[in-house]
UniProtKB/TrEMBL annotation, chains A, B:
Record's protein name: Nicotinate phosphoribosyltransferase
GO cellular component labels: cytosol
Taxon lineage: Bacteria, Pseudomonadati, Caldisericota/Cryosericota group, Candidatus Cryosericota, Candidatus Cryosericia
E.C. code: 6.3.4.21
Molecular function terms, GO-annotated: nicotinamide phosphoribosyltransferase activity; nicotinate phosphoribosyltransferase activity
Length: 477, 477
């Protein structure tokens, strides 16, 4: 992790930022003598957000930073003591460091429901306590990275910019802006995120700037003089086509005469398709063909898709609320479930068959179509090393199978932490964004569409199928 | 502010946590010689969240804490310098302290669209910079406090508990849990929030606790022995009625024999109305009538209302995702708009008449019905001291009026900060929750219902109506 992050610049992660029952259970494990039992927890989600066909993994780096730096202060231990936790248990917490392993898909990877995107292995007393904070980071950043990718898709090459900070959920704006870059946005308005992650930051003026001058033209001129080559003028304070645009043309021409160039104009209300066409025509008419048009105002992937379809001459979409809050889902349903204890695979039964987990320590493989080299399906095997299936089976229906013999496959998870030590070099946020776009290009278009996307298939090996079935039978009998 | 908060325990607020254009504009004001001009900004929202009839104000304390503690580190100034900001401007930032006034409704107040819930008055250079962070705190916490109040309403006296941390949006979980208490929840699972705010925290076991034992009965027994009077047993790991409930009865009876009492059971899946009735009957049959039933699993105000209507014998609702993310809205649309500069009232025109703001520095009064003493309507007057209307007018339609002569009225905003000094004693979070419930009891039921609530009216004085109309006419001509 880079130096600035390593200092946890803007905050300290408190181990109290978790659910109370993690402490109740952890003390219980300790008192029952089970604290050192080796457990494996899988993090997976059940349903793709936004009714889509995929998600984009994010949040791992922040989660790992938390795990490796988890320390209790004396105030925190004192508070737990005041809640009734035992002194001997608190002494264990005080000395506790994570000594286990974390295996995960890298951030930016395309992922699907039911896949163990992160597995945490280690003593029960350590692994239980991590649930709340890992989930809160991974669920949220994955939700937002996925939303950003959908908007970038809809933009078909036009820039998507994160303007969401003021509508982000409290301090959630940091994770939101970060995840936006994993999902492919070009820039952000969030200065702190740009500072911490060395990414592009931008923005120019609000209505208040215009209102603070006696006239709009004066406001535009003042700004353009201070930023002769990077001004984006906001057109809609009083009347977009009647005042804002003519004033922008005046200032754009004045800049040209001084050897400078107006960078752009921004539309923040009204019918963006209609207005952008009018604005483009007038700018071009006045020799301002280089001036970019950016738009904002309650955009999401559907509005962007519609504007692109209508041929609106828009160069940049500034997106706020619906990007950084993951509208209209609000949360990914990711869970942290025990799948193995002391080497013994574990299952949780549910009346809803889809909620019965896939037990045991596993490997996650991605299989490539031998024709065009895109992704065919994913497969889960037992993590024994010798589980190399020729057939992948639907986890619930044994008559649904896919032949995979001879297909190229790749283990898409990496060792991130081994015996409590970081063994993975996190790429920069920009590198992650670029890599994620490459990965996304390997997904068939049928899984990318917004309406009724084709479900990407995940199979299990015959051994894993049989293991799961035998555990279900044992628990149901 | 209490001592623990004053230490900004878990984080430092960075002034970089804002939108880039705030810095562009602020430097612009400085360079234009307008930095010391006195501005008034109003924070208001346009639409009640969730299609409801009201909102509950929250987020003020965190916003004020930020404003009064805003300081730049040399690293932060260095970063701004690297972005091209001028050294003389950065020297101004380095020394900058907020010297203005903040007037606001207290947290927990019932508020309505268009009302200036917070006004910030001071030099333009200071007030512009605060926009992003104040909005991000107030928008989010108000959204969540409102959601909590709706759920508490639906619960009709049963406890609502915040279980949302793992589904909260990143670090947004702190503001979310805090706002839940403003809106009336009884307890939280968020340990850090409970530590910082001295509120009730709780929770007992997850499925992983059950799974870590060879049998469910053994897991229940082990937990009950450690917590003989505060165990809540989770019934649905394998089979709620077939295994979980009988095992809970065994353990409940064993505790009785030892002179202790099982506190409760929790249902986390299945049909909660059906299951809660079955569970209640069996518990009662075995002399366990004191054992409480709590439920969780994708609850919101509509599910809670339905369960209450069905007579489900539920004592406590544990709510997660849909509470702490404000599902299905995700964000309040609050804005920070300049309404006055150098004593001159300011307006922003919009093609949408509802988006034209109410200009000038104002007072916000609440009028009481002379009959039953509930709230009749709110009124906005000019903040001159002599604007005591006998009639309140609809801001857009001059033929819609309400007589208010002789009605009891109260100024519902308080001075919070005066000349940069805190002049208001923030109550504790628990006090705020209690006060908020009292305030809410003064709102007519017609505004509280979920479906098509009756709109609460806000009028303006004749002077304010005329001022606004004259500014619109001047800008439109």
């Amino acid at each position: 992790m880079d130096e600035r992050r390593g200092q946890a610049y803007h905050r300290r992660f408190s181990p109290l930022y978790t659910d109370y029952y993690e402490y109740s259970m952890t003390q219980g494990y300790y008192l029952s003598g089970k604290g050192r039992d080796e457990a494996v927890f899988d993090i997976f989600y059940r349903q793709n957000p936004y009714g889509g066909g995929y998600a984009i993994a994010a949040g791992l780096r922040d989660a790992v930073e938390y795990v490796l730096n988890m320390r209790f202060t004396s105030e925190e231990l004192g508070y737990l003591s005041s809640l009734g936790y035992r002194e001997d248990f608190l002494q264990v917490l005080e000395k506790m460091r994570f000594t286990g392993d974390i295996t995960a898909v890298p951030e930016g990877e395309v992922i699907f429901p039911g896949e163990p995107i992160i597995s945490v292995k280690g003593p029960l007393i350590e692994t239980q306590l991590l649930e709340g904070l890992i989930l809160s980071m991974v669920n949220f950043q994955t939700l937002i990275a996925t939303k950003a990718r959908r908007m970038v898709c809809a933009g078909e090459g036009r820039s998507i910019v994160d303007f969401g900070l003021r509508r982000a959920q409290g301090d959630g704006g940091m994770g939101a802006s970060r995840a936006c870059f994993v999902g492919g946005v070009a820039s952000t308005s969030n200065v702190l995120l740009a500072f911490e992650e060395s990414v592009s930051v931008g923005g120019t003026m609000a209505h208040s700037w215009i209102q603070s001058f006696d006239s709009e033209l004066e406001a535009f001129r003042a700004y353009a003089q201070m930023h002769p080559d990077d001004s984006v003028l906001l057109l809609d304070t009083y009347d977009t086509l009647g005042q804002g645009l003519p004033n922008a043309v005046v200032v754009g021409r004045e800049l040209e005469e001084q050897g400078h160039h107006l960078q752009g104009v921004r539309l923040d209300s009204g019918d963006l398709a209609y207005l952008s066409k009018k604005v483009r025509a007038v700018l071009d008419e006045h020799g301002l063909g280089h001036v970019k048009i950016s738009v904002s105002n309650q955009l999401d992937e559907y509005v962007i898709e519609s504007l692109v379809d209508q041929g609106a001459p828009i160069d940049m979409f500034g997106v706020g609320t619906r990007l950084v809050t993951g509208y209209s889902d609000g949360a990914l349903d990711g869970v942290y479930k025990m799948v193995q204890l002391k080497g013994r695979p574990i299952i949780k039964i549910s009346e809803n068959p889809a909620k019965i987990n896939i037990p045991g320590e596993k490997e996650l493989y991605r299989y490539y179509d031998s024709g065009d080299g895109l992704w065919l399906l994913d497969g889960l095997c037992l993590a024994r090393g010798d589980d190399e299936p020729t057939v992948l089976m639907h986890p619930d229906f044994d008559y649904k199978k896919t032949e995979v013999a001879g297909l190229k496959r790749e283990n898409i998870r990496k060792e991130i932490v081994k015996n409590g030590e970081l063994v993975y070099a996190f790429p920069t946020l920009l590198e992650t964004g670029v890599w994620s776009a490459q990965r996304f290009s390997l997904l068939y278009g049928e899984h990318k569409r917004f309406a009724n996307p084709h479900a990407y298939h995940i199979g299990v090996s015959r051994e894993l199928f049989d293991l799961r079935r035998s555990l279900i039978d044992a628990r149901s009998s």
